[in-house]
Amino acid sequence: MDADDYQQEGETLYSLGRYQEAVDAFNQVLLLEPNSAQAWYGKGLALQNLNKFQEAFDSYEQALSNDSEFAAPWIGKGMVFLIFGKYGDGVDAFDKAISLDPEDVTAWNGRAVAFNLLGKFPEAINAYNQAITLAPDNASLWNKKAETMESLGILQDALDSYNKALSLDPCNAAAYHGIGHVLCELSRYDDALAIYEKALSIDPNDIQSWDGQGIAFHMLGKFDEAIEAFDHALTIDSDNSGVWCHKGSTFYELGKNQQALNAYDRALSIDQNNPSIWNNKGAALEKIGITQEALLCYDRALSIDPNYTLARNNREIALENLNKNRDAFSWYQKGKDYYSSGDFKNAELAFEKSLSANPENSDAWHLRGKSLVLQLNFEEGMKSFENAVKTDPNNKEAKKSLISASDSRDRLNRSIELVEQVLDKPVSKKDPASALSLDEKRRIMLNCLESIGTGSVENCYGEELDDSYQSKTVEWDYSILLRSSLDQEKSHSDGDLKNISDAQTSFDNGLTYEILGYHREAIQSINNGLKLFSNDENALNNKAVALGKIGDISEAKTILDKVISIHPTKIECLLNYCWILNQYKKYDEIQIVCDQILNFEPDNENAKKIKRISRKNASIKQ
User: Fold this and answer.
1) Among 409, 442, 467, where does a domain finish?
2) Domain match, 379 and 491 both
3) DSSP per residue, 558-621
4) Are both 496 and 371 inside the same structural domain?
5) Which pLDDT belongs to residue 551?
6) Same domain, yes or no, for 478 and 393?
């Protein structure tokens, strides 16, 4: 075989896609004719299709060194320049080819592609127009011109070009999916879906139509259908970063942030130089509160495209939110400190500042509500509990507090009504006890003692006992609150007034906590008062009840044993002692205590009922 035979063989093998064999054939030509520009050019084309771009470029250079007027190698060089990202050099190479052969359509097309990559869309359109002048029936050129018009926002002209492509090639799936894309740009999503269906009827494996269909479904809010379309596209090409990115955006809209992040990470494993993917990942990270990592993603997007406005705006918002979150956390911690110290007003204000920076903190809403309730501002407190539940429907403590606050408000109102009946004057609901004089307290106390004498369970304990008896002495009943106050006044000298005041404040706060169902806070506050007056019977009694309610039955019993040893006739403690003994199922001992109560107060209906219940339980136990 001579050189011409090998040249023809190489070209035939190239046309069959057998590129390595084509390279071998062209090498045979070059062994016989080392200066054959055609052989060097053919070898360059085959190497380019084998993705051996530098070797291809060198072959084109060899071709031109043997024939500088040969236009085709300049086109080959231009294509390799584009692959290497040297778009300006690509334009120059195509221009050289055009200067040698002004009617070479491939050179004009290459020039248009290079301008597109440079973002010079008007110049690209001019190049496509020149190519179309030379090949007006080339549907692919009309498609590419339409795509460039889309980039310029000339949407109607783009539609006209796509339609021209379809008139030349009615089975042109690329033209159909191009029209679908323009219709999406025009917000005509239903029309776009119909067009994508036509494209897929021509080519079921047209990944751009599946992707476009997913985008249209997404924009119509049909997210499940969108995911299905993206998944179909990925069965065709699992390494399409654009489809993974679009799928991630749909997961993001569905609130499935972790799945969105997984999709964005998959897209980035394929293409790390797409700023949109980095921006979208940043948005998903910020959504789940990982703001620092979100900022890194926005920075990465901007390092790729410094003019990416969306990423820049998102970065600024993320920084602002980060600062807000820091402020919110700082005020939240201050609020907790104020709350723990019993400074409920400042706690309320601190939680409000925290919530102004981050209104999604359910715990802050909850603690603000508790701070308000402990100031007897039940209505605002309940609103705060409602916001806590709205922010986090799984916040069980806030739900309990809402119910407890409603009950406490009603008990307070009933107690105030009782006091107003005794005094025949209105009482402040904000601070009902503080404005009462000592004489008024005694009058209320006498009324309460009279109620006890008649065995009125309703007035003294808030409600009648039932089989699940639990002492009601810590409800907001003025008979208990004022009795504690009067006992303190009777048992201490004037020189102890400062300590009395401090201790009584702690005891009253503890009672308030207990009334509102905050048992641990009640214990802490009562303990503060007991540091000053360790044997205060009422405070010890209330502490025992609080301990019982958190399940520390043993400690509660120890405290009540102490109180009863000091004051064996203290009815409230004896009743509470019955409740504690009931936890141990010591029904016989309960009956003995009830007998002790009835020895002091023969008409005490509570003791009678408890004894009756215990006798019944004892018989069942046996």
Assistant:
1) 409
2) no
3) HHHHHHHHH-TT-HHHHHHHHHHHHHTT-HHHHHHHHHHHHHH-TT-HHHHHHHHHHHHHHHHH
4) no
5) 80
6) no
Report DSSP letters for 455-476, one per residue: T-HHHHHSS---TT----TTSS
What are the phi and psi torsion angles at 171 (to 5°)?
A: -105, 30
* DSSP secondary structure, 310-354, as one string: HHHHHHHHHHHHHHHHHHHHHHHHHHHHHHHHT-HHHHHHHHHHH
pLDDT tens digits for range 157-174: 999 999 999 999 999 888
Q: pLDDT per residue over 102-127, tens digit each?
A: 999 999 999 999 999 999 999 999 99
List b or e across 259-277, with b for residues whose CB sees 16 or more CB atoms inside 10 angstroms.
bbbbbbebbbebeeebbbb
Q: Are residues 405 and 437 in the same domain?
A: no
The answer to whether the beta carbons of residues 549 and 568 sit under 8 Å apart is: no
Work out how many domains the chain is built from and give that number. 2
Q: Could you tell me if 294 and 280 are in contact, meaning their C-beta atoms sit under 8 angstroms apart?
A: no
Q: Amino acid letter at 19?
A: Y
Q: What distance in Å separates the CA atoms of residue 183 and residue 234, rounded to the nearest whole number?
A: 23
Question: Is 565 or 38 the better-scoring residue by pLDDT?
Answer: 38
The whole-angstrom separation of Cα 364 and Cα 385 is 10
The predicted-structure confidence for 505-564, as pLDDT tens digits, reads as follows 777 777 666 666 677 888 888 888 888 888 888 888 888 888 887 888 888 888 888 888
Q: How many CA atoms lie within 13 A of 506 on its CB side?
A: 23
Question: In 3D, which of 375, 367, 411 has the Cα closest to residue 391?
Answer: 367
Residues 6+ apart with CB under 8 A from 122: 152
| Dist. CA 202–CA 175, nearest whole Å | 11
Helices (H) and strands (E) in the chain, counts: 33, 0
| Whole-structure pTM value | 0.53
Mean pLDDT value across the chain: 84
B/e letters for 598-622, b = 16+ CB within 10 Å, e = fewer, are eeebeebebbbbbbebbeeeeeeee
Contacts of 385 (CB under 8 A, 6+ apart): 365, 366, 369, 398, 399, 401, 402, 405
φ, ψ at 576 (rounded to 5°): -65, -35
CB 538, CB 507: distance < 8 Å: yes
Structure tokens at 239: 């390494």
Please report whether residue 529 resides in a domain. yes
DSSP codes, 490-522: HHS-GGGHHHHHHHHHHHHHHHHHHHTT-HHHH
Helix, strand, coil proportions of the chain in percent (round to 5)?
Answer: 80, 0, 20
Distance CA 119, CA 112 (A): 11
Q: What is the pLDDT of residues 558-584, one digit of tens each?
A: 888 888 888 887 888 888 888 888 878
- Bigger pLDDT: 236 or 471? 236
- pLDDT, position 458: 30
What is the residue range of 463's domain? Answer: 433-621
How many Cβ atoms sit within 10 Å of the Cβ of residue 490?
Answer: 7
Provide the pLDDT confidence category of residue 322 given band limits of 50, 70 and 90: confident
CA distance from start to end of the chain? 116
